[in-house]
Design goal:
Belongs to the glycosyl hydrolase 3 family. By secondary structure, this protein is α/β, with parallel strands linked by helices. It has helices at about 10-20, 55-60, 65-75, 90-100, 105-110, 140-155, 185-195, 195-215, 240-255, 290-295, 300-305, 330-340, 365-375, 385-395, 400-420, 435-445, 470-485, 540-550; strands at about 75, 115-120, 165, 215-220, 260-270, 285, 310-315, 315-320, 345-350, 380, 450, 460-465, 495-500, 515, 530-535.
Length: about 575
């Protein structure tokens, strides 16, 4: 079910008029404001609503919570350590600096947390700047960690609502859990495949595995349209066409949420409309309000229509709407536009508050500003204690209205109870043949030929080369080629050259017969190879699909979801 009311498309003129007027007054709330919670020691709640009424259960629980409990429920920090209760000396030191405790479980107990994000990064990860530690190693370790975290949260006053445990499992360059799970190709690969049914099936498989490990909210899919050559968004986006990207985003949402994992649309109002990186500075969106509505927001609205439970606000300066104010802290963007104009009723989550645009204020003030703007969850504060104390002081001092905090907590708890309604998959579902088949089908449909014959086998033997640091990917492709019956030798064969994230013209080979782009395909405009292919991803599934094409056993039916100068979207005729 959609979490925003059905409405006719808003005319550009109406939106523009609203924004020019400052969006003051009259913007309808997407959900009624709950009654204020009882203060500490107040009356107990009436009889609990039935389990089939998540919103009623949330409202009843909120009425019993103290100020301290309310504040804790809107915080979702990260923690150091791969176990809830047993951590290394280094992790304990990290937690002491972050929150004045030794372990993640102690952090949950002390600050009555609503959630925790599991972090980590790989070499090609454009978000690694704010991933200061890692919590993930393998699925069994993640499952034991999440079990321990939930045990700690179950002792809280709000413990009847399951702890939110999230991570950035986008697939592609931003993938937190990589070993022992089914790894999908990137979003851009799904955009190239252009088949929403394949996308939904793949994300349903992936979501099942996340749920089995104890993760119940994924900070995905990326709903940003790749309107610029943004390296921080890049292949994380489903493409440059808003309508095509919208179809993909809706499918990813349906796949995830069908198996009990909340989807998060990010990064509103559209990080792909700036080439700058919010992990370093405050990107500026120079587009008009009308251009954002038509060019940036269709994937967000499609995700909302698909029932997305959450939207992530971006550290982005949308000059046409609220100049100079990051969207994370913009009441106009989050309350007047996202909720009032677009009708979103779910949970709004900040992007990492340890990123530079959010650190212009102290953690406490930043948390208060973010909540007053319309966020419901504060993600990755750089200091948990300061954020908690700042929110509590603002609540008691009046600068954070109690109705705003209660509204936020009620939304968070409603989402928790909604997620608790679906049974959790077992660990035995991880990386099953059926799940791998869903990933393989999506990857196979994505392979694109931008120059050269459609589906013609490459003359063997083949020598696989790449830019530096891709030994593992070369080995994966070599194994897949061998399995497909192609002879591969270390040198002297027909050169198939791989380029990926961060590579440019300097990483190409003039003598390559085939050049393959495993991230955004823009670099292919500089390649001289007679055959140019794109997989948009270096996953095992993508390399298996590439091997089938190189062996002449599969037709490369994908279409580039972004424009590459001088090259067609595909040289394969439509069927």
């Amino acid at each position: 079910m959609s979490n925003r009311p059905w409405r006719a498309r808003v005319a550009v003129a109406a939106l523009t008029a609203l924004l020019v007027s400052g969006c003051s007054g009259g913007s309808p709330r997407s959900a009624p404001t709950p009654s204020p919670a009882a203060p500490s020691g107040g009356p107990s709640a009436p009889a609990a609503p039935p389990a089939s009424d998540p919103a009623g259960r949330a409202a009843a629980l909120v009425a019993t919570l103290s100020d301290e409990d309310l504040v804790g429920q809107v915080l979702m920090p990260y923690a150091y350590g791969d176990s809830a209760t047993k951590v290394s000396a280094g992790s304990a030191a990290g937690n002491q600096a972050l929150a004045g405790v030794d372990t993640p479980a102690e952090m949950i107990a002390k600050y009555r947390l609503g959630g925790l994000i599991l972090v980590g990064f790989s070499a090609d990860d454009p978000t690694k700047g704010n991933q200061e530690t890692t919590n993930v190693d393998n699925p069994r370790q993640v499952h034991e960690l999440t079990t321990g975290l939930r045990t700690a949260a179950g002792r809280l006053a709000a413990g009847s609502a399951p702890l939110l445990i999230g991570t950035d499992q986008e697939y592609g360059v931003v993938t937190r859990v990589t070993d022992g799970v089914t790894v999908l190709p990137s979003a851009l690969a799904a955009g190239a495949a252009g088949d929403p049914k394949l996308t939904e099936a793949a994300w349903r498989a992936a979501g099942t595995e996340l749920a089995a490990m104890g993760i119940n909210i994924d900070f995905a899919p990326v709903a940003d349209v790749l309107a610029t050559r943004s390296t921080v968004i890049g292949s994380r986006s489903y493409g440059a066409d808003p309508k095509r990207a919208a179809a993909q985003v809706g499918s990813a949402v349906r796949g995830l949420q069908a198996v009990g994992v909340a989807a998060t649309l990010k990064h509103f109002p559209g990080h792909g409309h700036s080439a700058d990186d919010s992990h370093q500075d405050l990107p500026v969106l120079t587009q008009s309000a009308a251009a954002l509505q038509s060019g940036a927001w269709p994937p967000f609205t499609a995700g909302m229509d698909a029932g997305a439970m959450a939207v992530m606000s971006g550290h982005l300066d949308a000059r046409a709407i609220d100049p100079g104010t990051p969207a994370t802290f913009s009441h106009k963007l989050l309350t007047d536009v996202l909720r009032g104009q677009l009708g979103f009723k779910g949970v709004v989550i900040t992007d990492g508050m340890n990123m530079p645009p959010a650190k212009r204020w102290a953690p406490g003030e930043a948390a208060v500003r973010a909540l007053n703007a319309g966020n419901d969850l504060i993600l990755m504060t750089p200091n948990v204690g300061q954020a908690y104390d700042g929110l509590l002081a603002a609540l008691r001092g009046g600068s954070l209205p109690r109705t705003r905090l209660v509204e936020a907590v009620t939304r968070v708890l409603t989402m928790k109870f909604q997620l608790a309604e679906l049974p959790t998959a077992q660990m035995s579902t991880l990386n099953t043949p059926a799940h791998r088949a869903a990933a393989d089908a999506l990857a196979a449909a994505a392979v694109t030929v931008l120059r050269g014959a459609c589906g013609k086998a490459v003359r063997g033997p083949i020598t696989v080369t790449s830019s530096d640091g891709r030994d593992g990917t070369r080995a994966t492709l070599t194994a897949a080629l061998t399995a497909a019956g192609v002879s591969v030798k270390p040198s002297g064969g027909t050169i198939v050259h791989l380029v990926g994230y961060g590579d440019g013209a300097k990483d190409l080979r003039a003598d390559a017969a085939v050049t393959v782009a495993m991230d955004t395909p823009y670099v292919l405009a500089e390649a001289t190879s007679p055959t140019l292919l794109a997989t948009y991803s270096s996953s095992r599934a993508s390399m298996t699909a590439l091997a089938a094409v190189l062996a002449g056993k599969a037709r490369p039916g994908g279409r580039s979801p972004v424009v590459v100068p001088g090259l067609p979207a595909t040289t394969c005729a439509s069927t």
